[in-house]
Amino acid sequence: MVLLGILLLPFQKMVPQVSLQNTTCEMLVNPMGIDVMKPRFAWHIISAERNVMQTAYQILVSSTPEKLNANEGDLWDSGKINENASIQVAYNGKELTSRLRCYWKVKVWTNNGQSEWSANNSFTMGLLYYKDWPKGWIGFDRAFPWDNTKTDSRLSARYYRKEFQSAKQIKYATASIIGLGLYELYINGKKVGNDVLSPTPTDYTKNVKYNTYDVTEYIKSGKNAVGAILGNGRFFAMRQNEKPYKIKTFGFPKMLMNINIVYTDGTTANIDTDDSWKGTTDGPIRTNNEYDGEEYDATKEFPGWNSIGFDDSKWLKAEFVQEPSGVIEAQMNENIKVMNTLKPISIKKLSSGRFILDMGQNMVGWLQIKVKGSKGKQIKLRFAESLKEDGELFTANLRNAKCTDLYTLKGNEQETWEPTFVYRGFRYVELSGYSYQPSVNDLIGKMIYDNIKTVGTFETSDALTNQIFKNAWWGIAGNYKGIPIDCPQRNERQPWLGDRGAVAFGESFVFDNGRFYTKWLQDIRNSQKEDGAIPDVAPAFWRYYSDNMTWPGTMLLITEMVYNQTGDVNVVKDNYPAMKKWLSYMKDRYMKDYILTKDSYGDWCMPPVTIEAGRGKSADKKYPSELISTAYYYHFTQLMIQFSKVTGKNGDAKEFEILGNKIAAAFHQKYYNEKGYYATNVLTDNIIPLYFKMVPEKQVDKVFKNIAYTVEVTNKGHLSNGLVGIQWLMRCLNDYGRPDLAYTVATKKTYPSWGYMIENGATTIWELWNGNTADPKMNSQNHVMMLGDLLTWYYENLAGIKAASPGFKKIIMKPEMIVGLDYVNASYQSAYGMIKSNWKKSTKQFNWAITVPPNTTAVVYLPANEGDVVAEQTIKDLKLIKNENGRAVYEIGSGDYSFIVKKK
User: Which residue range or ranges hold the Alpha-L-rhamnosidase concanavalin-like domain (predicted)?
Assistant: First the structure.
């Protein structure tokens, strides 16, 4: 029996399994407000049979549910398409128009039969043309007496409202809003949607994103009221006067909105932003600053301000203001939401009526409080990641970020409050201003990050490995903020490119981050200068254009990741011109005799030789390396060869091949020592050329022996890499025959290691290997950059789940058998469906349960030597390819398999 799960793909992947019996399909992207003229479709085939492969499909897209139910695809009837594509299938029907509601379904043919039609689905087009928007942005382009724009960027929130009449019976209604920097939208007193900190941040001089909501259920016949609050976000920049040459700001908060109502008689009405709206800045949110916090004065609340009948006679007339210069675009990546809640594990009393709250986990978000007290009483909340030895908050690593919320009570019996436009990274909270002992039951930690699904699970027989994975999850999730920020706590929180180089690849096995990173690639493209330069931070909220290979080159690494993990070739096409232009820029300016002479960071944040050697010392030191920059340029030529072929630019592929060969030859001649190492035999300097396949074949063994000796003997089983080298360490050790050594590195508990962080209380991943002794000014306790390729190695080599072709159409399943690791249970929700690898071994037997999704195939490598007995539930379905290095290699189709290998 063949069942279907379906999804519309405005950008790329992916879909949860939804059976035919369900009447709705859970969408991972809000299907409202799409501005892609050829949206892409995907579906999962769900079957209990083995070896199911799609042979054809048919998609219907209709303008009404009735037409779709009658199988009339008046917008697009693809007809029967004899292809096996079930992801990235582009719409090819009539031209889609603004606000058009589209209804669609799909059926497929497979080698095992034909499905019925899937459940109906829908999506709605956004405002496709500039003329579709209202004529006026509204706002107040000035500060008010209680604001301060000279030092700490204290700016109160802006409140706006309007009442309108809806006289007819409503068929449906949508609201499209751009609220900069951040907004909350209300209709008739109810918040629209459950997003927070929306919209996603961009360089607002390049593009601004809008969100669209279905508000049919919010609007009633007769009089209605719409209200919005605007916060500062990245638009009205923090610390903008601190370093104006560095920090980019965009102006005062402003808004553009359209509510479109379609009545049952076919007529329409629009409620737009204009100067008929009323506004005030003298509300309860007195300031909201991402670094410093939010101050909320409940005595200044105006109940009912977002409902009908509110007296706004003392409010100001909304003013027309200049629009931002960026292009208006629909937001196709997920908004931020409250994704988890945590109850504190303890609360302890300090001196002077203060209390320390312990959440038990370094988290990102805010604290909701329930409090009682007299009117005007103030509750102060100060946040930090750790405590000093005396039990007080440790705030030195926050730099000058105040990370403080202030709540002024209105004097009710019990008041509940949480901030609206700020967040922070914290485990501990200092509470003050209470006249009584607060209870943990009155406090809730709310974890926020982009509404990105967790698509990977991973568990092993090793408790430390499991804890490292858990720490990684918390760190990665917490640093998703519409952009991949480096850290969530100090006065930085910037989208540094270098931090996410190869880390994003490992992230993709855990989170459905394809849309997130596709959006970020657009941010990087938008930040590129006319001459080709790409910054180290994008969007370029901080103006850093230092010219190096490793930070800007992240654009190529992320493009490769999204393409390989999701099968989205458009991500290559979209970014190809920018990548080629940047490589040309760097070559023309800095390449001499095929050596790239410009670097900025070297192997950033290499661990000090001992934990004591780094005590109190700043890690903010740069050691530029021409070896690293040249090796990376070579690696990028190899990626561009792949990208050129994918996009049909075969002439470019040949040019990059010639250039790469010349770079490799010059590199080897300059840096290779006949003793089998490069430069001064630093670990990273050897790993990079070997993993990038720059080393001539006859020297490969020598170089790898030096790598293994450095790790095993010199480092006593420890790593010694910074941000650059750690991106390739685990896979290099594994691919050249030492997965056991990789496992040794991954499970160390002594310095420097991931386990050392945990032994010293970490619940996320530190910025520095010596994060407990380094100068606190650069000492984040929640960074992801030092994960390197660890998660990639977990999934590809410990679990044995690896894409053999883009999107996991073909899968390689080859788990490493390592002494000390007895089992691995892992799963990954790929673009085609769920992949599972659950194995367990003993001295006499190996058991392996595998799931391969329909419409894919896998090559599996069973650990079996000659004489071992290989058994499976239905051996007739298996195709033995070969025996190789102690492995029996089979090619299998979709389905669930249970292998048993009995050792002789």
Answer: 348-448
- Are 276 and 354 members of one domain? no
If asked whether residues 444 and 492 sit together in one domain, one would say no
**SS3 call for 559:** helix
Domain annotation covers residue 741: yes
Domain count for the chain: 5
Q: Tens of pLDDT along 312-360? A: 999 999 999 999 999 999 999 999 999 999 999 999 999 999 999 999 9
Query: Quick check: is 292 in a domain?
Result: no
Instruction: Give me the domain span that covers residue 877.
Output: 800-902
CA distance linking residue 110 with residue 120, whole number of Å: 20
pTM surpassing 0.90? yes
**Quick one: what percent of the chain has pLDDT higher than 70?**
96
3-class secondary structure, 75: coil
Cβ proximity of 523 and 484 under 8 Å: no
What is the distance between the alpha carbons of residues 386 and 358, in angstroms, rounded to a whole number? 9
The closest alpha carbon to 634, from 604, 665, 601, belongs to 665
The answer to whether the CB of 540 falls within 8 A of the CB of 217 is no
- 59 and 169 co-located in one domain: no
122: enclosing H helix or E strand: strand 121-124
Which parts of 629-725 are beta strand (E)? 672-673, 677-678
* CATH number for 852: 2.60.420.10
For 707-741, what is each residue's pLDDT tens digit? 999 999 999 999 999 999 999 999 999 999 999 99
Its sign, for the CA torsion 275, 278, 282, 283, is: negative
Contact, 811 vs 800, CB < 8 A?
Answer: no
Using N-to-C axis directions, what is the helix angle for 626-646 and 650-671, rounded to 10°? 160
308-335: b (≥16 Cβ within 10 Å) or e: eebebeebeebbebebbebebbbbbbbb
Does residue 868 contact residue 899 with C-beta atoms inside 8 Å? no
Q: Which among 802, 633, 643, 785 has a CA at the least distance from the CA of 731?
A: 802
Q: Where are the alpha helices (DSSP H) in 591-649?
A: 626-646
Kindly report the number of other CB atoms within 10 A of residue 621's CB atom. 12
Domain with residue 145: its CATH number is 2.60.120.260
Residue 291 domain flag: no
Phi, psi torsion values for 255, nearest 5 degrees: -145, 145
Does 470 lie in the same domain as 428? no
- Among 142, 326, 156, 137, residue whose Cα is nearest residue 252: 142
Residue closest to 314 by CA, chosen among 326, 325, 300, 299: 300
How far is it, in rounded angstroms, from Cα 783 to Cα 723?
11
**376 shares a domain with 318:** no
For residue 718, how far is the Cα from the chain centroid? 29
3-state secondary structure of 55: strand
- Do 203 and 309 fall into the same domain? yes
Phi, psi (deg, nearest 5) at residue 66? -65, -45
The two three-digit tokens of residue 753, written as one number: 């290691």
Structure tokens at 125: 């087009």
The full 3-state SS of 172-234, as one line of letters, equals EEEEEEEEECEEEEEECCEECCCEECECCCCCCCCEEEEEEEECCCCCCCEEEEEEEEEECCC
* Of 224, 184, 211, residue with least CA distance to 124: 211
* Claim to verify: residue 18 and residue 98 sit in the same structural domain: yes
pLDDT at 9 over 60: no
Query: What is the distance between the alpha carbons of residues 196 and 607, in angstroms, rounded to a whole number?
Result: 38
d(CA 816, CA 866): 18
H helix or E strand, kind and range, residue 330: strand 327-330
Question: pLDDT at residue 749 above 70?
Answer: yes
The upper half-sphere exposure of residue 674, i.e. CA atoms within 13 Å in the direction of its Cβ, equals 0
Give strand ranges (E) for 334-403: 336-342, 346-349, 355-371, 378-384, 386-387, 393-394
Residue-level pLDDT at 26: 29
Domain end: 421, 448, 475, which one? 448
On whether both 556 and 642 belong to a single domain, the answer is yes
